[in-house]
């Protein structure tokens, strides 16, 4: 079953423990520190548009790309409420297309972990470098680390019970393939006291820092930083998330 179909309806409900404003402040800091203070910014894997809205509020002209129509429907509702002029495109981020270039591309909340082949990660970075980033433009993305999958998530079952809906989230991490399988069972309240059961399976892959360095070099992007998430420090052995900051070489036009 496709991921983020029925889950889209309750995604924000179950993600209300995520400090998006803090994450957004960190991301805006990375953009500012590396010279992108305004202009067009693309978010790949934008989901329900929470981070897209935060960046739009900061003054960036936002484009959001996601392959889930259901997630984009939720994003469109937020856009209607905020009044921000955000362009949403229903595209697979592995094959995204724009009409021109942007000053920065961001891909956060472990969206890049959903790309399960090195060649596809390379394709995204290369497409950005050759076609869609301004000279001097940034590509910033985060990644869940192998440590997080092996030591925190792998073989764990997480469950949460709410009035509107409940979920059971089972994790299985394969150390050979570096793929974490999420089996998600949802119970969503639909009519009165009646709940409907839905099931989705998600897959994410961990990438070593050496692999990221290699792919960045192959893509033609310049690797500026790899940070332990939400700091300006080098990743640690037990870092659960890292941020990668890349730049297209050349002077801004």
TrEMBL record:
Name of a matching Pfam family: Methyltransf_25
Protein's name according to its UniProt entry: Class I SAM-dependent methyltransferase
GO biological process per UniProt: methylation
Main enzyme class: transferase
Residue ranges constituting the Methyltransferase domain according to the UniProt record: 41-130
GO molecular function terms listed in the Swiss-Prot or TrEMBL record: methyltransferase activity
Source organism, top-level taxon: Bacteria
Keywords of this entry: Methyltransferase, Transferase
EC number, UniProt record: 2.1.1.-
Keyword NADP listed: no
Biological classification of the source: Bacteria, Bacillati, Bacillota, Clostridia, Lachnospirales
Organism: Hominiventricola aquisgranensis
């Amino acid at each position: 079953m496709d991921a983020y179909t029925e889950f889209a309806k309750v995604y924000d409900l179950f993600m209300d423990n995520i400090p998006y404003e803090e994450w957004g402040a960190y991301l805006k800091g990375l953009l500012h520190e590396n010279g992108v203070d305004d202009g067009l910014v693309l978010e790949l894997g934008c989901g329900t548009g929470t981070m897209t809205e935060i960046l739009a509020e900061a003054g960036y002209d936002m484009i959001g790309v996601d392959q889930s129509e259901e997630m984009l429907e939720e994003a469109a509702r937020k856009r209607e409420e905020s009044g921000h002029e955000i362009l949403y495109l229903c595209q697979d981020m592995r094959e995204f297309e724009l009409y021109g270039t942007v000053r920065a591309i961001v891909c956060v909340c472990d969206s890049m972990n959903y790309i399960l082949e090195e060649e596809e990660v390379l394709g995204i970075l290369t497409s950005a470098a050759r076609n869609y980033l301004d000279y001097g433009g940034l590509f910033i993305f985060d990644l869940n680390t192998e440590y997080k999958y092996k030591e925190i998530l792998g073989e764990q079952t997480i469950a949460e019970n709410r009035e509107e809906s409940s979920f059971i989230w089972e994790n299985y991490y394969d150390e050979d393939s570096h793929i974490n399988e999420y089996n998600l069972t949802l119970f969503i309240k639909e009519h009165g006291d009646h709940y409907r059961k839905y099931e989705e399976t998600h897959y994410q892959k961990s990438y070593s820092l050496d692999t990221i360095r290699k792919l960045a070099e192959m893509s033609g992007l310049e690797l500026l930083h790899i940070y332990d998430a939400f700091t300006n420090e080098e990743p640690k052995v037990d870092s659960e998330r890292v941020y990668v900051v890349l730049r297209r070489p050349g002077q801004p036009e």
